[in-house]
Amino acid sequence: MGVLHSFVPNAFSAFLLFAGFVFILCLYLKYKHNYWKRRGVPSIPGHWFFGILKDVVQFRTSPSFVFGDIYNQASENDLVGSYLFQKPFLIIRSPELIKQILIKDFKVFCNRYFNVESFHDKIGTSNLFSLKNPEWKYLRTKLTPVFTSGKIKKIFNLMVETAESVTKYLDNEFSDNEKTKSIIVKDIALKYTTDVISSVAFGVYANSFDQSNNQFFRKAQEGLKSTVKRGFQFIIMFFFPALSRYTGIKMLGPSSSYFRKVFWDSMDTRELSKTKRGDLIDFLIDMKNEKPDNHNFKFQGDFLVGQSTIFFIAGRESSVATICFTLYELAKQPDIQKRARDEVLEKLKLEGLTYEAVQNMKYLHQVLSEALRLYPPAPLLDRVATEDYKVPGTDIVIEKGTPIYIPLCGLHRDPKYFPDPLRFDPDRFSDVNKDKIVPGTYLPFGEGPRNCIGMRLGQLQSLIGIITVLKDYELAVDPEQEGLVDPKNVFLQAVDGFRLKLTKL
Q1: CA distance 392 to 398
Q2: β-pair type (499-504, 180-184)
Q3: pLDDT tens-digit profile of 188-200?
């Protein structure tokens, strides 16, 4: 009995301690989720613990659509606050405020919130995408000449050669008596873009369509394939970057060592041969050998590898998404598909597949622009305040360190700016209509000084990939295809195994 009497008070005391802890925790969480209310900012708190990330961490839906939903819920407010777990962040909705932050007050919002501050990955921390100002500005200035019109024209022939590999691959997929077949389009887009971007970024030909000799492609897939683990890593990098340094994250995952070796083999070979291709490797060799004019920079080691790596990842993944989603919308819209194909065939008949011919395919450019409106590959533009910032025309102060997001799946699908926004309508971007688009509402490549440096290269690569399929095949949606957007990916990407029905013309 004595033991029982002593146990009861101890159990009761433990219960009181636990209840007290829960009570204090609830008060703390409520206080944290009142951050924006205390500042007079309209807010959507979301889940009491996860904030707005509950469906994201459970991989039920892509972050792009979660942020887009918050944009829609905010109605007519220029900005709305919410929470990443307990971390407050702001969504910007007003085109005027978007331009203010991305362009006019860039000095305050010059850095991305995204970061790979891993102690284990110099490649991920030192590239153009991840770097903070002023290092970012210095490096951007150095790398900009890689993407001039003249340099891109030289790369065009490489794209055409790779497109011929796509044509041969598709021919071999059809047996002699087959006219219609379900084809994994994403696989083709991955191989095509890998071959193009590997040449630009690493100075090598990946040979991705050769099943017996495509180690580069297999290593790229190993490092970049969308998995649950990879999904969690990108959630940390985008929304909790301070944690990334402790998690062992590597931007190229287990393939980092392989790509480091490929890079240095290419650099050493190029330096010994003294040949010039006008690609990124040439520029990195020049930077490595020149006397630095900024003593904060040492163009050596993984700092150099990081530049090739980020151009390869960004150039490959964004174009794969653009090709897949554009072909998907064309498959859904036979009339638009026919109009685009007729233009392509007419230009090819008159001029062949030349740089000028592709530039003159006006309607196809409109199709691409409309696909980028509905499916922007990088659907969240992120910035972070480097100092306290008073929002013009209001009493609202954005505190230093507060992340800012512009959700393109909300902005690009806002009926206020794009009537009937879910309808795929390339004529929104015709010569007659494109000037009606409100500045600051169409941002598939970002805006301001930190916009996408490889924008023109990515567009051209995507266009040639689309032309290659469209000129020879009629597209239709495969009724057995399950899903469209990969919920494990922070970026907007088609699901693995994404397929369409192709019919030979």
Answers
A1: 11
A2: antiparallel
A3: 999 999 999 998 8
Closest CA relative to residue 332, chosen from 475, 188, 470:
475
Helix (H, G, I), strand (E, B) or coil at 414: coil
Helix, strand, coil abundance in the chain, percent, nearest 5: 55, 10, 35
Q: Is 486 helix (H, G, I), strand (E, B) or coil?
A: coil
Q: What is the pLDDT of residues 303-345, one digit of tens each?
A: 888 889 888 888 999 999 999 999 999 999 999 999 999 999 9
Higher local confidence (pLDDT), 138 or 102: 102
User: CA distances (Å), 37 to each of 30, 33, 44, 74, 81, in order?
Assistant: 11, 8, 10, 14, 9
Sheet holding 79-84, edge to edge: 79-84, 87-92, 403-407, 380-384
pTM equals 0.92
What lies within 8 Å, CB to CB, of 167 at 6+ separation is: 468, 472
Tokens coding 22:
């829960």
CA angle 159, 467, 432 (to 5 degrees): 115
Pick from 108, 377, 380: nearest CA to 237: 380
Quick one: DSSP state of residue 47?
B
